[in-house]
Batch of 4 targets.
Target 1
Amino acid sequence: MNRRRLLTAARQKLRDNPDASLDSIALAAGVTRRTLYGHFSSRQALIAELTQEAGQALHEAFAAARIPGADPKQEAIRAALEPARDEAVAALRRGQHEGVFASHLPSPVLAQALEALMLALAEENTGYTWTDPTGEAAASVLDDAGQKLLFTEARTVNNFAATVVDDDELSLIWDLARWSPSAANGQPLRVLFVRTREGKEPLIPHLDEGNRAKTLGAPVVAVLAYDVDFHEQMPAVFPARGEMLRVAFADQIEKRESVAAYNSALQTGVFLLAVRAAGLAAGPMAGFNRGGVDEEFFAGTSWRSHLVVNIGHPGTDPWFPRLPRVSVVDAVAWA
């Protein structure tokens, strides 16, 4: 009885405060410190049993959610994965021992979560069909004018006309850019549109000197950032396994930073194409003090700047001479 009360109290206290002392846990359970140590020889032993309980509960939840025979294809896939399951558990256990993987959940539970994620991704990949009876969408190709607008004649602009860029145009850019791909649909890219001279003034000192004048002359400046807390949105943007991914990323700030930076860079390429598709020109710049920009605009948030983009209509003589492209021979390989 006392052991169950101790575990219940520990679960509640540690949930509210991971650094809760054993004395506070004993007090919450209504027992003495001596009684607590009679059941658990150390804080580590108490947490180990809580972890084991949580892992077992998760294992049972997965098992309960699996309806035998409800999906013969998934059951067949699970059977095919059976020979590799023990090897996956062993690999995860070894990684936990070496400090490569987090150890707050038992390796069998992590292996089952990985298997569930693989099945979910397979289902997402095969669960949609074309609803285009005429075949026009599947057969369509961007016409020559579109290819020129987005690619072959598009250029980075160095000065801009005074033509106003309104909020409807900026909204169109984002409405196009937000459809970009990202891993597990995480969508970490965030955008701050700076539309006034007053808004630009705190930005200018953080730019490299060569970028300041053209930024002051641009109708709009977009500060592109990535959200290191993108995982909090996973249940909404990846309903099939979003909560599991949110929990998996929760205490892995360095991994979130890496994933967010990579995927926001991928989304940034689409953002630049969206600027062009909206009939505007872009001047992306990496020459700025990220720490200064973050402190100025994103202090107290989970956003981290990674690119500044001037946006507007091309001005007088806005382009430098076109530079060569890497040759196809050097850039493309065939197998």
Target 2
Amino acid sequence: MNRFLSAILLLLCSCGKNNSELGDLIPPAQPVLNIAVAGKDATHPEGDGSGAVAVTINSAHAFNYRIEFGDGQTASVSTNNTFTHLYKHTGVRRFTITATASGRAGVSSTGTAEVSVYRKFEPNPELVAMLTGNGTRKWRVDKDAPGHLGVSDISVFTPAWWSAAPNDKDGLGIYDDVYTFTKDGNVFTHQTNNSLFGKKEYLKDFDPSLTGEGDYTLTGTAAADYTETFGYDGNDKDEFIVFSRKGHLGMYFGVHRYQILERTDKQMTLRCEQAPGAWYVKIIAIQ
């Protein structure tokens, strides 16, 4: 019996010693998240388009940290309280970041914070290669193709209202235009041969003295060749070519953003929107 009592006392003393080694089980303070969005400033409140963020978790009595960035990617766990992350969305999105701080014996506290992050569109390398030839490539309106120009209601994606027959606009200053896309610097050059065809009310962008509306061919120095930059936009499903100033493809409607509906190695069908309709153009590579 004495041996039995001695064993129990020894066990109790051992448990007391282990508990004292753990120290007081003080729960971590609720985490405070300090979030730094890469490139964020007064001009770029959602960042520089890289999608990169850095988060520091402050929580007294915490030894381990777990963070979820709100975009479905796997959570990160570390004994370091600073984390970096790269979002993969396109455009501006708002995320809720959740941090869990753990202390002795796994006791934990949780905190959240919201952040808006901009990530610019990264074009498919196949699109860049097709458009620029990974160097410089020239295009023109595919004048011999049915439906190389067209228009529809803005709610549909085929030229239901009007579809141009081959060479339908011959002699109006559109078929001799050459569009050159250069990969280095995203440079766009429009060889106009001193004539531009489009809607007169929008061709005022080239010649402010114009009055009136309707189909019109602008000629002379106001319609001279020009060079500017272009870019890409889109998401997982849609691709767009965007011009910085006056750039356009086909007829001019005062629009500088073109959705790519179809593309092969040598041909593209594009769509732009200008109320009350949507306009279409097919272009073909000549280099």
Target 3
Amino acid sequence: MDGNQHRLHRGGTSATGQMASEDFAARLATRPASRLSETVGALVASLNRLADELGLTASEFHAATDFLTEVGHYADSRRQEWVLLADVLGLSSHIEDLNHRRPAGATPNTIAGPFYRADVPEMPAGANISRDGKGEPLSVSGRVVGLSGEPLAGALVEVWQANGDGK
């Protein structure tokens, strides 16, 4: 937007947006039912409602698609920027909270993120996890305790961090 015009429309999806959503749903209906189809169908309908609500212009739409394209250019087999974007948007934490409820006072759920590697060697407490020596050293300490403050024996703590190059 140019800052001077705010085109917020209330009241549902336009006929064009509704038709686009229905056409997409009809195409999905030709495929076997799946949770992915249900999710993508709901996403399409929500995007059409959002475009109507915002009164999205062609230039705003192109700016959004340019942003998403740029995010995609930074992703590769070792770096998943889509996961990072979902985390920045708060979606990852929300999905974790929906699927793994925790009692009040518990540490919030998090996902492993785009830089986590399950195949790294186990290292002793206090070891330096830097593989290339790049970046500033950081010392981290902490305790793993239950909701009442009692230490939890046998807790596994996994720590990882990318260097300044994201590796």
Target 4
Amino acid sequence: MGPGRSTVTRGTKGWKAAAVALNPVPAAVPTRDVTYRQHLKRSGRENALSVKKRVTRKLAVIFAAVATLVVAGSPAEADMGNISEVTCVDGKGYLKIWYHNSASHVRCYANAGSHYFTPPAWVDRIQTGNNDVWLWDSNGDIVPFSRWTDTVFPNRPPHCSWIQIL
């Protein structure tokens, strides 16, 4: 028999068996269709790596949330103190608000900024003067008012948590 030919030996099951016996495929040949995750799973290291990833991700999310709260704060606190309460004078262009919580009040404000109502108030009327105003409703809605508008809420006044002069 010459080179490249295989012979059937005793106990084999045909020509295929003889060819496989002469040219065995090594078992440790890496294949390209095995992913890195499958490789980790087979080697028993998948759980240790995924635990590290989960802990790292959770810490990153917690750190980002805390950093956001510390830097930004609430919108009411960020602009608090910039608005000025002034004596109400008609024709001056001040923001004038009629509201009630435990008692009725009329207040006038000037300058850009915010004012937080403690406790939240029911706004009966608002005159914006020369100011663009946002009224932050207790439900989370923002009600915008443009300059030189006079709005009266006779039946269902909005429950306002704070106002902002833009």
